[in-house]
From TrEMBL:
Biased segments, Polar residues type: 715-736
InterPro entries: Peptidase_S1_PA (IPR009003), Peptidase_S1_PA_chymotrypsin (IPR043504)
Stretch list, region Disordered: 711-736
Keywords carried by this UniProt record: Lipoprotein
The keyword Cell cycle belongs to this UniProt entry's keyword annotation: no
Span of the signal peptide: none
Protein name listed in UniProt: Putative lipoprotein
């Protein structure tokens, strides 16, 4: 994904922001009914107190409880006039203003009956500043006693502050003892820019007892917080995304920020003056060359070619606009420099293309000719050196290497590692003509893709990053999109490198290969976690009763008679991991029979297999859920069987608008078996949710729609660090 960056605070820009950008505040109903006796109706709200990162849903109800037909309006507020009071849709969805002029703003929203506008009811909404984007850095790795500078931008203008603290958990509720120190807290205030606060964090002298240190930022001391995850080590390793976002100068290294110089949205005032509203960018992924030895920069179509909206020959910048205050090369004050020109891209609109990829020619001396990528090398003086990947066409994915550790070096999250979680993935990704994602371009279904789970493996701005086998620096693909379930579980989508090179080679009329070294080398792995956390499942009483009925069933008794004596050590009620919110029958199996065939379903309930011992069962120490697999472990035969079923059902499943993708993964209920992975959009219910298909378990993962521009957190992206009003409208071209 590539991030977008807001460049100026104008109230009219609210019209550019999609409603889906913000999450609805609260989950319950809050009644508010002034003047009910006079108006004959009242207003309910999902919340009356919110941050600028949220929306609130208002409803007008007659005294009978039926919806009242009303016209909504934002009547007044005490925010600065230049910043506006927000807006409300005809359906009663209120969106706060982009920025606030004080710590707390009150806005009055009115509903008037359509049949009699003189009958109206008002509600007061209290709004406080939120965060413009995640903390910078989002993730980092520090050695003992080392320091980093962190920053937070809040949606307040001319005032506001951030309270910094340390915690052993991301919620800020854990212990702060022994986690290090915070110094040099400072906030900068501007009249027409968001408030930016910074702090210096210094790691402790000894390793903390917690697995990570979380740097917590609270806006004006409220409950609106953001966190940065910092791993502490005692072997001298320091890694942050700062170098990836910085100006590289001549011979720029790959894995750094970059993008199309025209990749911004514009806004024109009623007076006819144009401004840059926001901008996008991504990662300069790798260096490739053709048969004649001509070299190109590799990245995504949506990074270099603006999702098909660019023109061949467009300038490619380093860093990208979002790291240069949205100031393009046409302005003399820009900190960006040109590194190449758009040479070719694979149209996303074409059915014949199956990757999101583009190439840029290289300006003389602009890019390191060895193809070195930031942080892929060995450790020197606490810093990972740049190093090239393996030259060639990359590594072929096969069952015997599915469990490889994978690594990427990208603009936003820097160097991160994880494992492959699914292959043969058909997935739907939505593209837009603009950075704000207000102008849909189309949805494209990619086939045969790679999926990687892992908290903080990627985020917006890492688009175009090369994904490699960390054992030998062989490329396996290129990152292009990501999604989340909103609770720490993320999924990164990767185009297979063979497809990328093959299709781009056809576009330039010559075979392509990666520029790099002929000597395999291991890459340091930094794992920031899988996300979601492992929790003891809660088993409702109704599930326990259901499992008791299964244990009493004829089908279960017949199963026990068929299996070897001593193979089943016990059974219990559990929670399915393949289909959240459904019960599972836990079967405790002895290690000697761990590969024994087990029915996928018994008496209509999913089975869950856990290897244990008689002693653990007797002492009540048996696990309550299977251990999550570390990587993808599938035999050639199970892969072949799962692939056949995926090919048989993918088309049918993908016709369901609730389903985002279908692929081959590992069952979490029985990790030694394959599963058909079905990606379901959060908040939607598929027409059919089979438990099994043709003898294969079906696993469901609920995710928000995949994005290539917005952060996975769905929060508003970063603004620029300075006003761009001095740029003359005639000096640059708005997007089509």
């Amino acid at each position: 994904m590539k991030p977008r960056k807001l460049s100026h605070l104008w109230p009219q820009l609210l019209s550019l922001l999609p409603l889906g950008l913000l999450a609805l505040a609260g989950c319950g109903g809050l009644g508010y009914s002034p003047g009910v006796s006079q108006a004959g109706f009242f207003i309910t709200s999902t919340a009356s107190d919110m941050s600028t990162n949220q929306q609130v849903s208002l409803s007008a109800l007659a005294l009978s409880g039926e919806p009242a037909p009303v016209r909504w309006s934002v009547e007044s507020g005490d925010n600065a006039e230049t910043l506006g009071e927000g807006r409300i849709s005809a359906k009663g969805i209120y969106t706060p203003p982009n920025a606030l002029s004080r710590n707390l703003v009150t806005v009055r929203v009115t509903a008037a009956l359509r049949s009699d506008p003189s009958r109206s009811v008002a509600i007061a909404l209290r709004i406080h500043p939120g965060f413009v984007q995640p903390l910078l850095p989002e993730v980092a790795t520090l050695s003992l006693r080392s320091s980093l500078r962190a920053s937070a931008q809040i949606t307040e203008v001319g005032a506001g502050s951030v309270n910094w603290s340390l915690s052993s958990d991301a919620a800020g509720t854990g212990s702060s003892s022994g986690l290090g120190a915070l110094t040099a807290n400072n906030c900068e205030h501007f009249d027409q820019q968001y408030t930016t606060c910074t702090v210096t964090y210094t790691a402790p002298e000894r390793l903390p007892s917690s697995s990570a240190v979380y740097l917590i930022a609270a806006v004006n001391g409220t409950q609106t917080i953001a966190s940065s995850k910092i791993l502490i080590n005692d072997h001298g390793l320091n890694s942050t995304p700062a170098a990836h976002q910085a100006v590289q100068g001549k011979h720029a290294l790959l894995g750094s920020s970059g993008g199309n110089d025209n990749d911004y949205d514009t806004y024109t005032t009623p007076a006819g003056k144009s401004y840059i509203a926001d901008c996008c960018g991504g990662t300069l992924g790798a260096l490739v060359e053709d048969d004649a030895g001509q070299k190109f920069i590799l990245s995504n179509n949506h990074v270099f070619a603006e999702s098909d909206q660019a023109k061949i020959g467009d300038v490619i910048d380093q860093p990208g606009l979002m790291d240069g205050a949205c100031i393009p090369l046409s302005d003399a004050s820009t900190r960006l420099h040109a590194v190449g020109r758009l040479r070719a891209y694979l149209p996303l609109s074409a059915r014949s293309t199956n990757v999101d990829a583009a190439l840029a020619s290289i300006d003389p001396g602009a890019i390191d000719s060895s193809g070195a990528i930031l942080e892929l090398g060995s450790l020197h003086d606490g810093i990972l050196a740049p190093a090239p990947p393996m030259t060639g066409e990359g590594e072929t994915l096969e069952p015997d290497n599915f469990d490889m550790p994978v690594v990427k070096s990208g603009r936003t999250t820097g160097l991160t590692c994880s494992h492959i979680s699914a292959v043969e993935l058909a997935v739907k990704v939505n593209y837009y003509k603009d950075c704000a994602e207000t102008q849909p371009y189309g949805a494209k279904i990619f086939h045969g893709q790679i999926a990687i789970e892992g908290a903080d493996f990627t985020d917006s701005g890492d688009s175009g990053a090369l994904v490699l086998d960390a054992r030998n620096a062989e490329a396996i693909g290129m990152y292009f999109a990501g999604g989340t379930n909103g609770d720490g579980k993320t999924l990164s989508l990767v185009n297979p490198i063979h497809d990328v090179l093959s299709e781009l080679g056809g576009a330039v009329g010559s075979p392509l290969q990666l520029v790099g070294t002929t000597k395999p080398h291991a890459i340091t792995c930094i794992h920031y976690g899988q996300g979601g956390g492992r929790q003891t499942p809660v088993i409702p009483e109704i599930w326990r009763r259901r499992i008791q009925s299964v244990l009493s069933s004829t089908e279960y008794q017949q199963f026990l008679h068929r299996v070897p004596a001593g193979s089943i050590l016990g059974a219990a009620a559990g929670a399915s991991l393949d289909e959240r919110g459904k019960p599972a029958l836990i079967l405790y199996v002895s290690a000697a029979h761990s590969n024994m065939p087990v029915p996928l379903v018994l008496d209509g309930v999913r089975t869950q297999v856990i290897v244990s011992t008689p002693a653990a069962i007797a002492q009540g120490k048996a696990p309550r859920a299977p251990l999550p697999p570390n990587g993808l472990h599938l035999s050639p035969s199970s892969l072949a069987h799962a692939r056949q079923i995926a090919q048989r059902y993918t088309g049918q499943l993908m016709h369901d608008p609730a389903i985002l993708g279908v692929g081959v993964a590992q069952s979490l209920d029985h990790p030694s078996e394959a599963a058909l992975l079905v990606l379901v959009e959060v908040g939607r219910i598929p027409r059919h949710q089979p438990t099994t298909l043709d003898g294969l378990r079906v696993r469901y993962l609920h995710l928000q729609r995949f994005h290539v521009t917005r952060e996975r957190s769905q929060q508003r992206p970063a603004p620029s660090s300075c006003s761009l009003s001095r740029i003359q409208p005639s000096t640059w071209k708005p997007q089509d």
